[in-house]
Amino acid sequence: MKRTLPILILLLLSMVLHTAAGFAAAGSTLVYKGKISSVDAKNLRVTLQLSASKKQTFRITPNTKLLVNGVAVKFAVYRPGMQAQVTVSKKNGATVQIQGITRQETAVIPDLAKYRTGIVRDIEGNRVWVERVFGLMEDFTVYPSTSILKEGKRTDLTSLYPGDRVKLFMDKAKSNQLALLEIQNSSIEMKELYRGQLQSYDTMFYTITLKNVEILTDNVWKPFKSLLKLPVDVNQPAYYGPNKTAWNDMNQFTNKQVYLATVVKAGNEQAARVLIQQSFERSYAEQVSQANFNTDLFELVGSGSFTVHPGSILIRNGRLVDQYGLTDSGFAYVSAADANQGYAPLANIINIYNEGLEQPQRVRDQIYWGTLDTLVDGRLFIKDFATQEMHQWQYQYGASKELFYDLDTSIYDLTANKTVPSEEFDRQNYAVDDASSTWSGRKDWYGYMYVRDDRVVAINVKQTPDNFLNHKTTTAKVVSRNGTLLSLKEVKEWSLTKRNWQVMTSSFNSLDVSKAIIMKDGRKIAASEIQPNSNIYVIRDGGTAIFVLIT
């Protein structure tokens, strides 16, 4: 029985996925098949996405039979995104049965325990959405008292990315009060994205060879090698467009265009995602305006809707993620193939390439530049300050803001080139009251601040102001580091006039980070901790960095 159960489940999946959208008549009942788009737990209603443009809502009654993979379940098991078929009575329209279908061998939901595991799908402020068994989606709130661990070290939410596997510890078994969030496995960091014509696939040694190979750099395909041979991860399926194809059948696609997304495992590069191009494509580079995970659609400003399909290679922050990695505020490079008439183009490559404070786990963070007006008892008042909004400084002349600092705040004096202990911060002359400034001639200093929830994480102070109108916002990938000098590639700069990221055609390829506030995983780090292949978001003055965010 145990051997036949997975086969039965796959047959059920096949029936749902390959049957035309809509309903089928079955004697005295109608059967509707599709994907659950929403669940109304209060009013006991389930909405099914029957096609790209059609939905239908079904009301649950005490007589409705609730199943998943043929096993009786409670209504709370059904979640958006789950495949399902709903049987309705022709006579009175009552919902007779809901049959949910998952890839799990059993639909028995484990009892609530003090810990749960799953994959992070979305992050918004201090809320984290985690996909558990059966496609069950739960959201958890991270409180100030919640501990977050990564590789055994304390960190915060900025270390968490969609695709990370986590273990969640609750205060109580039947509670969503999160006591500890442990990041167990990080999402997959991509090394490179290649495309080329398939020359051969070795079924014995599991290697793939491409010819006329190009590499994606700065959203442009550039010549790389005449031949490229790499091992493949056969535990991951290969796709021909949106459809899976068996590895043993790969050679039938000889001379077809193939995309390879690679990762590094045990020091060796290998193909983690393989997608065979099915038809001609067009490329786009625009802002993502919205994403609908229930319909697998997303929109680009100015270019309309696109479909995320099972074979889509989705990259965010240099990491391979699933469709939940799409973000409304991100800019993306998309390579898409025309679909059948009436359907949105199929997006084969989706590369979200700008980040910074737009990352959902950084919505509580802010970057400031301003005049230090008052320092007293862990409180810092700034005036005539500017904040980073949409990759540029927004100046607020005459405004004031109260911030807080503590013993963990990193304070550096750029004028004297020294670290300042936080307990001595208000004893120095960094902020001068109006009365003493008149007779002493001393003036308030200026500061660059990285702030979370009005708490100053790090501040660099200096005696004279900078002309922040000269500052540029840049994204890049680190090639190498020599002391505090970074060598860069894939450099893009935010254009105020075009409101988009522009590839830098000049020879800007190095950056001095000796005076920068460098942030990674929610804490300030030293330049020596910046690793090659890191994706960085930079506010700079010429070739000198002011802020560096490791994204």
From TrEMBL:
It comes from Paenibacillus gansuensis. Residues 1-20 form the signal peptide. Keywords: Signal. This is S1 motif domain-containing protein.
